[in-house]
Amino acid sequence: MYPIKHKNIGKKQMEKTNVLVSLVFLLAVVLSMSLVFADDTETADNNISIITANESEFHTLTPSISIIAIGNCSSYYVNLTSNSTVVVNDTTIQNNTLTTITFTTLTARNTYLYNLTLWNESCASQINDSVTYILEINGRPSITSVTTDDSCTIRSQDRLFSTVWSDLNASNNGKNDSVKQYVCKTNEFSGGTCTGGSWCTESTYQTDATSSCTATIDGSSTTGSKDYYVFLRDNNNSDISGAVSGVFTICGGSEWDEEDTGSSGTFSTSEESSSDSPRLGISWALVILIAVIIVVVIALIYASKKRTR
Questions:
Q1: Which residue, 162, 182, 194, 223, has fewest beta-carbon neighbours within 10 Å?
Q2: d(Cα 242, Cα 86) in Å, to the nearest integer?
Q3: How many CA atoms lie within 13 A of 78 on its CB side?
Q4: Nearest CA to 103 among 129, 69, 66?
Q5: Smallest Cα–Cα separation from 95: which of 75, 67, 115?
Q6: Cβ pair 115, 130 in contact under 8 A
Q7: Out of 85-94, 165-174, 219-228, 251-260, which region has the weakest mean confidence (pLDDT)?
Q8: What's the CA gap between 44 and 93, in Å, rounded?
Q9: CA 296/CA 243 separation, integer angstroms
Q10: Range of lowest pLDDT (32-41, 50-59, 109-118)
Q11: Measured between alpha carbons, how far is 32 from 40 in angstroms, rounded to an integer?
């Protein structure tokens, strides 16, 4: 009897287990179907995360901003206004996808407020969000005047370059941005560097509309006319649109000659010394000749006196 009783109990437990497994399977199927056919209005959030890049300052009149809308809808409509001027209207962007929008009709040295509004009523009527950012169009610095000494510079001496400039911007309360001066040897400037060589660079940025730097002329520099190109860059990495150029003269080192300066009263060079050598040789020969004549004259006088005796 005992073996039969245990057999019946095992069969009942297996039947209960099969029933539970079937119920769990049916529940999983129901949940899966509900997720497949559910309307996304039921799961949509009531807000959108809006992210923009480069929202503050630009160096172009047609800046572009990057927008990302993060929510539960597949796409959104976006309106963009700048100081109440419509930039884009009812433009579709995809959810969680980087989208670029370009501004137009902006002017330099001005600050704008731009507003982004995003919504999707078909997805969820309650989703409607907006953000406001400040956008500045930075102005390039400009040169009023450049001055440097008109006289030639002797090698191993200094030459000063001074510049008067302007870089007024609305975001800086109508004051100048900070500006640095670069004096290049060629008309080549990129990323704050004189790519073709530099005469001098200002050590710090200035705000008082004047800049200067001092070039030390290398002792091995060749003499003659030298070109220079003055560039400016402000603290927002905005460069002057074009350099102001000029010419100065290097006139030699501590023993500069008439060929270097074109003037008289110069120091002697080794070349001049060598040209003097023949003149020195002729002078000594003349002295010797005079001495010989004197000796001969004395000898003749002596001989004449001897005969008269």
A1: 162
A2: 34
A3: 26
A4: 66
A5: 75
A6: yes
A7: 251-260
A8: 17
A9: 80
A10: 32-41
A11: 15
- Residues with Cβ within 8 Å of 220's Cβ and at least 6 positions away in sequence, in order, are 155
What residue type is 192 in one-letter code?
G
Per-residue pLDDT reduced to its tens digit, 59-118: 777 888 888 888 788 888 888 888 878 888 888 888 888 888 888 777 777 778 888 888
What is the reported pLDDT for 185? 96
Our CA angle for 275, 276, 277, nearest 5°, is 95
Are the C-beta atoms of 126 and 45 separated by less than 8 Å? no
Residues in CB range of 229: below 8 A, 6 or more apart: 183, 184, 185, 186, 187, 189, 243, 244, 245
Backbone phi and psi for residue 216, each to the nearest 5 degrees, phi listed first? -95, 115
């109990």: which residue's tokens? Answer: 9
Please state the φ and ψ torsions of residue 26, each to the nearest 5 degrees: -60, -40
Q: What is the Cα–Cα distance from 211 to 146, expressed in whole angstroms?
A: 10
Going edge to edge, which strands form the sheet with 75-82?
57-58, 128-137, 110-119, 75-82, 85-94
For residue range 131-167, list pLDDT tens digits in order. Answer: 787 777 878 899 999 999 888 999 889 999 999 999 8
Percent of the chain past pLDDT 70, that is, above it, reads 65
Which pLDDT does position 151 carry in this prediction?
86
- Whether 211 and 163 have beta carbons less than 8 Å apart is answered as yes
Mean pLDDT of the chain: 74
